[in-house]
Specification:
Blueprint (H helix, E strand, L loop, with lengths): L4 E2 L8 H11 L10 H13 L6 E5 L2 H10 L8 E5 L2 E2 H9 L3 E5 L10 H7 L4 E7 L8 H10 L3 E5 L7 E2 L2 E2 L6 E5 L12 E5 L7 H8 L5 H19 L6 H11 L9 H4 L12 H12 L1 H18 L5 E3 L14 E5 L2 H13 L2 E2 L9 E2 L15 H9 E4 L7 H13 L3
Parallel strand pairs: 1-14, 3-5, 3-6, 4-15, 6-7, 7-10
Antiparallel strand pairs: 2-11, 8-9, 10-11, 12-13, 13-16
The protein binds pyridoxal-5'-phosphate (PLP).
Pyridoxal-5'-phosphate (PLP) binds next to helix 3 and helix 4.
Length: 420
Amino acid sequence: MKKIIFAENFTTLEKSHFYSSLSFLTYRIFSISKWKYKLKLENKFLDYFWAYDKKIVSFYNARTAIFQLLNNLWFKSKDEVIINSYNCISVVNSIIQSWLTPIYVEIDKENLWLDVDDLIKKIWPRTKAIIVQHTFWKPSNIKKIVNIAKENNILLIEDCAHSLWSKIYDKKLWLFWDFAIFSTWRDKVISGVNWGFLLINNEKYFKLKNKIEKKLKKLNIKILLQNHLYNVLSFVWIKTYNFCSIWKTIIFLSKKFHLFNQVLDENEKKCENDKLYYSLPDSLAYIALDQLNKLFFIQKHRKSISIYYNENIDNKMFNILFKEQKQEDLNYFRYPILFKNAIDLESFYNYFKDKWIIFWTSWTWSNIAPKTSNLEKSKYKWDCKLAEDLSKNIIFLPNSTNVSIKDAEKIVKLINNYNV
Ligand SMILES: Cc1ncc(COP(=O)(O)O)c(C=O)c1O
């Protein structure tokens, strides 16, 4: 039986989630939005990461964490927040919804971190915060940025949405400054379908936890059901991909009756999503807890597939980004490769698609992902050429838990024999 190898959206989809969600949709329906597991999940995180002396605030997703943090600080309307110009529209939307202005800083081509010269050029009195993104697990140049932030009295928020568990200089990535945000949205390092959280590292800001939590609302029951349906139906979808047209029916019904919610809806892409106040429901916390318990297994799997690619791929059409990374404690979340031009990328993508190998392209074709984002509304000024070019030439090989080493061998063989 032919297997489809997905990198997109199904990174951590598994049987245990299918059964958990099914149980919440049936005999556990009345406990779908209680609170027992949220506290357990938060404590487990603090326990796993030796962060007992920090404060954690859970949200439905990380974009809500960013919005709530920015809204509960002392910033005034039109103050500026510096971000990486290779980014996700959800981060931009959260800044714009806080009545702040996102300022995009050019990236370094090899490491995808903030270009320090451009960063310094864009700092002025209205700059109030820098969101430092550790893109696709690659640690940013955080030490330099911490110094710049200190010199200019600017607040620093680490965006660890891609870097759960990664370390640098023997220090975990989220401990460099006062705030860090994380995401376990369905295509992240681990997937609780949803869970975003804010970690407050500085005692000076601990009071924010209560202040923010008081303002949060319970997740709308329809959205909650959609999350569980996503787990159940997409599991069936991926398992039945080979059989007749069952999966087509599932997709058709899901779209027609809005059975799933989108990762990014149309409002978000226009920076008009103002529903940034939901807390994390218990039934989603239950699933996130299960994923947190599997974090080391998931990370080890991604690492072994990535190392296999590093050692065996031999095709000069593209460069493997981050290949020379020597550190041990990284999560290898994505495996980016960079083509010389978009035409080569397109034919490479299509060639593999025909062979049922679907590469991850959510951060391809536009520097503000996804490609359907409205860049005018995002206030992007078309001044970060490297980020724009890179997004047109980058694609990601599958390395998640549903890619076996046998699949990786097949992918490597096809890549090594691939010629335009
Ligand atoms: C770098 C980065 N930060 C933050 C977010 C927001 O995370 P969430 O999807 O949990 O809202 C994303 C979403 O994809 C992201 O890629």
